[in-house]
């Protein structure tokens, strides 16, 4: 497994990271034993970066990750943790909380659930519009100085917010959705990151399975699967988007790889400062994703991919309308 640095101040991590959110029910029921086996398989394959959030099933995901990592050398992996999303019983979201006292409270719970004495990269999941980013970052800086956090990260914020945060404490990376059908980051955010020496961890590289090559228009989301509420999976949009996938499949067939591998490799090819996160819930999906790190895309390959899936060609927002306003970039 190759490694990449998260910006000029962040750690060296595996060139592919594992996003654990799907292991806690957001895409329907997940198998606990298989999830843990998938984490183990990722670590044994050289994956070192594991991404979670304290609000993923209200702590379930952190406890799952802690179980999977038990007995492992703490220096052999990096934990990226998002915080600040407020939840209620059931599926309700209650906004965000970026107050300094809340930052420290969230961190204390995460450290306990994860069974660790430090978080490698700690980041607010979304910007709290009621709290200046300088205050939120200032609290994380205090926790870095105290040894509880190693690096500052951000998530789904715009270029102006990145600059304000970076002025308080160096930002290691921004986590944001980036895929062949979600390219809004390219306009202003990615240039700002590169100017400041900040890395990018890209989630949604397969657009929640939509461009994995495994989804079909006839498939319906299972109970509890958030894709049932996703505009890009809705009737009318999904058929159009899957036509793009079929165009991509033709390129993948020529290249001798799967659609998922091609989509992951495309994100990776956008720069050595980008680390794709794959949300594999099973060893089978992980095994498919891993060869993408070795897939070399030529200029001709990238041109063919661009023809198959031109920028802005997808239909539907990447989140339901109620969540779009909290994002630092559009689609």
Describe this structure in words.
The chain has helices at residues 32-44, 60-69, 100-114, 133-145, 159-168, 189-196, 237-255, 259-268, 283-289, 299-308, 321-324, and strands spanning 3-5, 12-14, 17-19, 49-53, 78-83, 85-87, 93-96, 119-124, 149-155, 171-177, 199-203, 274-278. Helix 3 packs across helix 4 (133-145). Strand 4, helix 2 and strand 5 (78-83) form a beta-alpha-beta unit. The two termini are 31 Å apart. It is α/β, with parallel strands linked by helices and 331 residues long. The mean pLDDT is 94.
Task: Please state how the strands of the largest beta sheet are arranged side by side.
Answer: 3-4-5-8-9-10-11-12
How much strand? 15-25%
Order of helices and strands: EEEHEHEEEHEHEHEHEHHEHHH
Quaternary state of this entry equals single chain
Distance between the termini: 31 Å
How many strands appear in the DSSP assignment?
A: 12
Low-pLDDT segments, ≥5 res: none
The portion of residues assigned to helices is 25-40%
* Main beta-sheet annotation: 8 strands, parallel, barrel
Descriptors:
single chain; 331 residues; alpha/beta; eight-stranded parallel beta barrel; two-stranded antiparallel ribbon; 11 helices; 17% strand; globular
Give a brief outline of the structure.
By secondary structure, the protein is of the alpha/beta class. It contains eleven helices and twelve strands. The mean pLDDT is 94.
Explain the layout of strands and helices.
Layout: E1 3-5, E2 12-14, E3 17-19, H1 32-44, E4 49-53, H2 60-69, E5 78-83, E6 85-87, E7 93-96, H3 100-114, E8 119-124, H4 133-145, E9 149-155, H5 159-168, E10 171-177, H6 189-196, E11 199-203, H7 237-255, H8 259-268, E12 274-278, H9 283-289, H10 299-308, H11 321-324
Parallel strand pairs: 3-4, 3-12, 4-5, 5-8, 8-9, 9-10, 10-11, 11-12
Antiparallel strand pairs: 1-2, 6-7
Helix pairs in contact: 1-2, 3-4, 4-5, 5-6, 7-8, 7-10
């Amino acid at each position: 497994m190759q490694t990449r640095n998260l910006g000029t101040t962040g750690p060296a991590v595996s060139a592919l990271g594992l996003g654990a959110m799907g292991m806690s029910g957001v895409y329907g029921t997940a198998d606990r034993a298989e999830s843990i086996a998938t984490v183990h398989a990722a670590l044994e394959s050289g994956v070192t970066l594991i991404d979670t959030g304290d609000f993923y099933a209200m702590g379930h995901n952190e406890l799952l990750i802690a179980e999977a990592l038990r007995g492992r050398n703490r220096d052999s992996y990096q934990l990226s943790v998002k915080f600040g999303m407020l939840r209620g019983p059931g599926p309700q979201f209650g906004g965000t909380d970026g107050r300094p006292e809340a930052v420290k409270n969230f961190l204390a719970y995460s450290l306990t659930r994860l069974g660790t004495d430090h978080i490698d990269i700690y980041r607010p999941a979304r910007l709290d519009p009621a709290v200046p980013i300088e205050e939120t970052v200032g609290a994380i800086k205090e926790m870095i100085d105290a040894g509880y956090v190693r690096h500052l990260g951000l998530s789904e914020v715009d270029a102006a917010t990145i600059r304000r945060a970076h002025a308080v404490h160096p930002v290691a990376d921004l986590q944001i959705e980036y895929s062949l059908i979600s390219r809004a980051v390219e306009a202003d955010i990615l240039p700002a990151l590169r100017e400041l020496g900040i890395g990018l961890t890209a989630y949604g590289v397969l657009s929640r399975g939509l461009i994995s090559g495994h989804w079909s228009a006839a498939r319906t989301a299972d109970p509890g699967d958030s894709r049932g509420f996703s505009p890009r999976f809705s009737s009318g949009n999904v058929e159009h988007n899957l036509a793009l996938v079929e165009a991509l499949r033709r390129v993948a067939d020529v290249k001798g790889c799967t659609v998922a591998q091609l989509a992951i490799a495309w994100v990776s090819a956008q720069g050595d400062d980008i680390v794709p996160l794959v949300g594999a819930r099973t060893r089978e999906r992980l095994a498919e994703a891993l060869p993408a790190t070795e897939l070399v895309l030529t200029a001709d390959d990238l041109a063919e991919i661009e023809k198959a899936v031109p920028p802005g060609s997808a239909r539907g927002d990447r989140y339901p309308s109620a969540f779009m306003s909290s994002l630092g970039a559009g689609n």
